[in-house]
């Protein structure tokens, strides 16, 4: 099946009322607010870790027998600078904490290539790391992580997910860390509901990433939040290949079928930039809105040019810092929360320049390119 066929299948699945994760959708995960309500005993550890992340580093001066080994596997090929910045923040905070470590990073495999991603994991585990920093999006990753959790080594830190899996309650990873995808899409839905108010109609198309957890958590949450808006209508929904080119093709198809769309909702940076390419190709600038998701460098530049209507900006480096602080606390035998969720802020072209500069200074305090 070619790309166009895959997108049409994705549209058909949505028409049948199925999530991109299948019938279960997000039912296998605890929503962050619900999980925190179920575990009030973790509140103090959560606040402690948040305080450590906000403040200057406090080295523990641990006696280490040798360098701890950390393997970091992150998606390759994305236009978003989130993963690169996260790695820089992690390394620089570990160094400031005075920890002796060796970090091996693997980030070259295409996001859709299960074989290459599996080989990366095999290679990383062959070095017997003490900590594995991994992500959880595609279904095939579940089985590998479950095996590692059962084995107990290495200790697993799951990046880009803040909703614990129900099945792993008895054997959880050391830490879930990231930014709440559902919260971010709720912020965007609030913004676009205000945009839709008073209009006769507000039609939009959904541009998912590839099928998986992130697409479901971001895209399906936005759709659910828009449903109460009576004049809002989802016209089309496409999977993409999580890259700019396939997002452009999906957006072109949407605009050909519905030239008067009000919004192309993008689930990631690549899909947002691809949607902007399509709008320019069709000459629809200023008529069809596009959102960002993440607020990295390319999105902020597009926002400044007035090309994006809004984006939800991650206080990016918090997650890398949180991982470094969590490792130090683990080495000390101190309590950790199960989840760390960084802050998200909605920004638009109307956000005052001074406010945006302050957010950038905070978000990129470790990963600013001038530090490299």
UniProtKB/TrEMBL annotation:
Quote any Pfam family the record assigns: Peripla_BP_4
Q: Does the keyword Iron apply?
A: no
Supply the name of the protein.
Autoinducer 2-binding periplasmic protein LuxP
Keywords per UniProt: Signal
Enumerate the spans annotated as Periplasmic binding protein domain.
Answer: 71-333
Q: Which SUPFAM superfamilies match?
A: Periplasmic binding protein-like I
Instruction: Please give the superkingdom of this protein's source.
Output: Bacteria
Do the record's keywords include Oxidoreductase? no
Which source organism?
A: Pseudaeromonas paramecii
> Where is this protein localized, as stated in its record?
Cell envelope
Name the family the entry cites: Belongs to the bacterial solute-binding protein 2 family.
